[in-house]
Design brief:
Blueprint lengths: L3 H25 L9 H17 L7 H33 L6 H18 L3 H24 L2
Length: 147
């Protein structure tokens, strides 16, 4: 069901995904990295995670709202890294870097770990925690006031 809380949750996580993606692009990755659709894929994932994860749990109290914000942000980070790892695997597979399909599937998990290792940064973790708490609290306020 469409509610104001779901809309606000989707917009909050999309904004958080945009800010986090810009932080990754400018601070965590080398200058020679070609990002392609990295930013916009993450924003779309933010919209989906906000709508489906955070928005669905709105209206249960402030503590649950903040907890749902943290859960939705963790989901966003997981799927963001997974989608980027899958994209990189497909890019490498099209260049015939893998000898078999099983090798390509195993490479997704190695790429996932490699990309996730870049995110072990105090600034990024702090940004995501602050964004999660603010997104959860704002969604809860909207759910309480606009039905």
């Amino acid at each position: 069901m469409t509610t104001a809380a779901r809309l606000v949750a989707a917009l909050c996580l999309a904004l958080l995904a945009f800010i986090a993606s810009r932080y990754i692009m400018t601070s965590l990755m080398p200058d020679t990295t070609v990002f392609g659709y990295f930013l916009w894929v993450n924003v779309m994932l933010g919209l989906v995670c906000g709508w489906r994860v955070l928005g669905a749990r709105a209206g249960r109290g402030m503590a649950n709202g903040i907890s749902a914000g943290i859960t939705a942000t963790a989901t966003l980070v997981f799927w963001g890294v997974m989608v980027q790892a899958l994209n990189e695997m497909f890019r490498l597979a099209m260049r015939h870097r893998y000898d078999s399909m099983m090798e390509a599937v195993m490479a997704v998990f190695q790429l996932f770990l490699d990309f996730g290792a870049h995110l072990i940064d105090g600034g990024f973790i702090g940004l995501m925690i602050a964004g999660a708490v603010l997104s959860g609290a704002l969604t809860e306020v909207v759910a309480r006031n606009w039905r």
